[in-house]
Amino acid sequence: MSNAALQYLTVLTAVTTFAVSFVALARTPLRSALGARAVYWLWLSAPASVLALALPRGAQPSGAAAMFAPGVFAWLWRRVDGLLATIHFSGLLSAAACIAWAAGACAALALMVRGQHSFARSLGTLIPSADGTWRSGAVVEPMLIGALRPRVLVPPDFEQRYSAEERELVLAHERAHMRRGDTLVNAFGAAWLCVFWFNPMMFWAMRLLRFDQDLACDAAVLCAAGKGRRGRYAEALLKAHLAGDAALPVPLACHWGSVHPLRRRIAELRRPVAGRIRHGIGILCVATLVASVSLASGAVQPSLHAARSTPPATATSAASSRPAEASATVCPLGRHRAPAHHTPQRRA
């Protein structure tokens, strides 16, 4: 049992690492061609690859699936499958590794829950406003909190710090996060980090995901507001960054300006925003790439099936070394007794 679980965790780690590596390498060049809003959905490659492992597919995509999965993915996964097939763990080592993984996952979950609970208690009493936002004296920048019931939280001096136009742009950004369900995505990402706490690439990928979230919402706001309001948008971003530079990011919240480097985010604001046609083409291209990565992960299914269906080596060796005459019994005096099915002949 522990050997099969460890084998499945190894395959799952290889699949997710490959998926996030592909997204991390492709996101920057694709953002220039397809737009930030379409590239954000490229992160679906990681959960789609995990779901593809549970589907009853063969090692190689065939039929309509071959139209989406490039040959380079299938070739790469054949090599990964051959490497994983050579990995075998002893019973004691497998049990120890499973216990260590479970302890690390529980510790990571406890730390995240404690941090989120401490942040929620530090907010104090939330005061509702007429514009649909909530006020708290503990925050210094606008943010979106709550995974299931998201709410826009702003500081008490929101009207004094930002102009009317800047407030409109800031709230449009946070409401774009709300429409996209980004706080729920962040909650799923926090659970993902608890599962893969031992893989530092997942923490790096989560930071890139949060950056792409903000870029996608920036593009959505600028697409609706127009190109002439980029200057005001950058000024509001600078004010929030200076106010919240010392604030610590919360796992389940969407911050307005203090999570990522300001220079990189403002540089992305200078790029032309993708229109409807370009955005639609980008969504189709991203969907094709997500299908390619997820279908390519089916190449490691033979390793999973082999780990589940291979009988233990001790039982196999014991069954093969059993002598053919083992069905005969031995009497206490050392004489061989005839098998049970043999009946002696009667004398005349």
List the defining traits of the structure above.
flat; single chain; 348 residues; 14 helices; five-stranded mixed beta sheet; mainly alpha
Q: How would you explain this protein's 3D organization?
A:
This protein is mainly α and 348 residues long. The protein contains 14 helices and five strands. It has helices spanning 2-34, 36-40, 45-53, 71-85, 91-122, 158-161, 164-180, 182-195, 200-225, 230-243, 262-269, 276-296, 301-309, 313-320; strands at residues 127-128, 134-135, 143-145, 151-154, 254-255. A five-stranded mixed sheet has the order 1-2-4-3-5. Helix 1 (2-34) runs antiparallel to helix 13. The relative contact order is 0.17.
Question: In short, what is this structure?
Answer:
By secondary structure, this protein is mainly alpha-helical. It has helices at residues 2-34, 36-40, 45-53, 71-85, 91-122, 158-161, 164-180, 182-195, 200-225, 230-243, 262-269, 276-296, 301-309, 313-320; strands at 127-128, 134-135, 143-145, 151-154, 254-255.
Number of helices: 14
Number of domains: 1
- Our Rg estimate from Cα atoms comes to 29 Å
Mean pLDDT: 76
User: What's the helical proportion of residues?
Assistant: 55-70%
Largest sheet report = 5 strands, mixed
In one word, what is the shape?
flat
Strand tally: 5
Give the N-to-C terminal Cα separation.
Answer: 61 Å
Query: Could you spell the SSE succession in H and E letters?
Result: HHHHHEEEEHHHHHEHHHH
List the helices and strands and how they pair.
Blueprint lengths: L1 H33 L1 H5 L4 H9 L17 H15 L5 H32 L4 E2 L5 E2 L7 E3 L5 E4 L3 H4 L2 H17 L1 H14 L4 H26 L4 H14 L10 E2 L6 H8 L6 H21 L4 H9 L3 H8 L28
Parallel strand pairs: 2-4
Antiparallel strand pairs: 1-2, 3-4, 3-5
